[in-house]
Specification:
Blueprint lengths: L1 H5 L4 H39 L7 E6 L2 E6 H40 L6 H7 L21
Length: 144
């Protein structure tokens, strides 16, 4: 039973492990994207309040509560948050690189090749009408 946890036994087990690895990579990508958007928002706030008078009042959301502070108090906190998020992004990028190497080693070990979905579209005679999600191409009823 210990061999099962370490080495996949059959093709289905290999496929399941591979699928979960790809899922992890997708999750890391989406988290990085989400955090990069937060860094962008923090940068916008920093650029907006930096030139203002440090004694001016401003409001900051802390844990769902709107708190009144001065720009002098808020600006360093927002900058620290931005730096913290950037550190997390750097760590996630490192984890992503490790996962990519791990999955490429796994692909090489089990000789996994990905089939492109574009090949299926080409087999249909080049018709891509069915893949246009919510977009109407050409006049309606032109095939009648």
């Amino acid at each position: 039973m210990a061999a099962r946890a370490e080495e996949p036994i059959n093709e289905q087990a290999v496929a399941n492990v591979y699928s979960s690895m790809r899922s992890e990579i997708t999750q890391i990508y989406s988290k990085i994207t989400e955090l990069e958007m937060e860094v962008s928002e923090h940068s916008l706030v920093i650029n907006a309040i930096q030139p203002l008078d440090p004694a001016r009042r401003c409001y900051r959301m802390i844990g769902g509560v709107l708190v009144e502070r001065t720009i002098k108090e808020v600006l360093p906190a927002v900058q620290r948050n931005k730096e913290g998020i950037e550190e997390v992004i750097a760590r996630l990028n490192e984890a992503l690189e490790k996962k990519k190497k791990e999955i490429s080693d796994f692909e090489a070990k089990y000789k996994i090749r990905i089939r492109k979905p574009d090949a299926e579209v080409k087999e249909e005679g080049g018709r891509k009408e069915g893949s246009a999600q919510g977009v109407l191409v050409g006049p309606a009823g032109s095939n009648e």
